[in-house]
Structure formats: C-alpha cells, structure tokens
Amino acid sequence: MSLCRYCFDSLDALRSVCGINDKNIPYLQKLLGVELNVRGTEILFENEPSGAAVKALLSRLALVSDALHELSEAEIFLEYRAIALDSEHRQKEAGLIVMGKPIVAKTRNQRAYLKALKECQVTFAIGPAGTGKTFLAMAYCLSMVLSGQKQKLVLTRPVVEAGESLGFLPGDLSAKLNPYLRPLYDAMDYLAPNAAARRLEESGVIEIAPLAYMRGRSINNACILLDEAQNTTGEQMKMLLTRLGENSIAVITGDVTQIDLPKGRLSGLVDASQRLRHIDGIGFVDFDNNDVVRSRLVRRIVEAYEKESQG
User: Fold this and answer.
1) What would the pLDDT profile of 243-282 be if each residue is shown by its tens digit?
2) Residues 226, 157: contact at Cβ < 8 Å?
3) Could you give all domains of the chain from N- to C-terminal order, each with its CATH number?
4) What count of other Cβ atoms lies within 10 Å of the Cβ of residue 94?
5) Do residues 205 and 221 touch, judged by C-beta distance below 8 A?
6) Contact 283, 126 (CB under 8 A)
7) pTM of the predicted model, to two decimals?
8) pLDDT tens digits along 36-71
C-alpha cells in the first residue's frame, strides 16, 4: 500500500493542528475515515480515494493554525464542513436525479464519466470492479428514459462465457438472461422501486436483449447499455456500435482484467479502445483502483491482483 504525506511548514503548525499529545488525531481520523500517523513535521496516510480531501483539510487547518495556538474539535469541524460544502456543490454540477434520488459522482473519474455521458453519443467506461461503471451508466440511462428524452433502454451483454452457451440454460429467454444481467438489475432495483422497474419492462420501455439478437437492427431514440463488454469479440463490438440509429446513445462498460474469451482471442473492448479513441463523439473514461467506491476491501483486492499481474 502506497502512502501519501502532508508536510507542515513548522513543528509549531503541526502541534497546533494535532493538539497536545496528538489529541486531535482520533477526531481527524473519524472525520476523514483514514488512519493518520505523525512523523516529524509530516502526517502520513494511505493513498485512499479521499487522499485529496485529507490534504485539503490539513492544508486549510495549517493556515488557520497561524492565528490559533491550538485548534479545537469545533474549529476542525468548521473547516471540514466548509470543504465538504464546496465539494458537494461541485459534485452536484455533475449529478443526476433518478426517481427523486440524487446520484452524485464520488471521484474525479466518476465526474468525468457523467460529463462524457452527457456530451458523447458513445461512452466507454473501462476499469476494475466497484468503480461505479455499471451503476452510473444505469442511473444516466434511466434518467434519460424517465424524463422522456429517450424512448427506451436496451440492456445487453455477451452471454457466452467459459464455454457455456445461452441455449444450454433452462427457462425462457428472460430466465436465461437473468443471471447474466443481475448486476444491471441490482443497479435498477436501487434506483427504481421494483414494481416500477417491472412495469417499464412489461411496457417495453426497458428491453432485455442478448448481444447476438442485436444483429440487423437499427435502434432509434434509445439508450443502449452494453455491460461486461470485455467478453465481446471485435465483430460483436462493431455490430453493436453500428446499431445506433437516430437520437440514440450507447454506453459500454467493462474490465479488461476479467476477459473470459478463449485464449488468443482479442477482446472487442480492447480492440475498440485501440481503434476509436480519436473519434469525435466517442468518449473514453479509464477508471483505476482509486475510483473503487464499493468498499476499501474491494479496492485492496483490486490492488493485490494488479501487483501480481505486474510482477
């Protein structure tokens, strides 16, 4: 785990912020949600997604310490709240409202993602699990449909993994696809009441389609959401992107570290990333482990696997 550090200009400034015998440190840790360690005139902490917020608060407290001999918890909280209000204001600029629920970006790349969704006809979100790729895509697409800006939402993903094809699964088409589309359903269930989501499906506003069934179609005035795109082939990716009709958008999400295609087969997501980044109207957002918001444990798991692959 890499460490970040904030260095005070003087020992007096550090003592003013930390308090006598570092009594303010537990309170700072509680506010910031990170472990802080004092060494000399520095405060060390793990390279968390909130690292910028930690530095921002310590920097602000260092300035306040010039006028105060020792900071109290109340004074620390006032500075923390001032930073939080500013952050909330900036996040709301890139936020969404879905059925009355405010959805705000939690990291810089998530803000860039929402911006790309609003500005690009095709948006690729590439990165590890837990970064909000699928959730934010679903939130944006639902907001477009529920506000009447798009007529329907088409949910799709590749359904052939590890040698098992769709035809071997039991049940009708909906039952066959349900396990594959579970992450999309989970996001939808959080954003919209179950009954409302089911009504949208029954009325055809939300359409569930295997990727293979998209061939030959022209999809107009719709949002197309392709999840787990790392498991598409180049031909499938091209086929999906050329389905876009009048006033339609596409959001493609995937994690190139979890490709289930046969060995030696190039992922359509990797291929598209190499071919399409220079085209106007297509946006790419690359997430990393600093964007993992699902939990700290998930982020550490992602980092552990990254280190192993690099080694």
Assistant:
1) 999 999 999 999 999 998 888 899 999 999 999 999 999 9
2) yes
3) 3-90 (3.30.1370), 96-310 (3.40.50.300)
4) 17
5) no
6) no
7) 0.65
8) 999 899 998 876 656 777 888 888 888 887 766 778
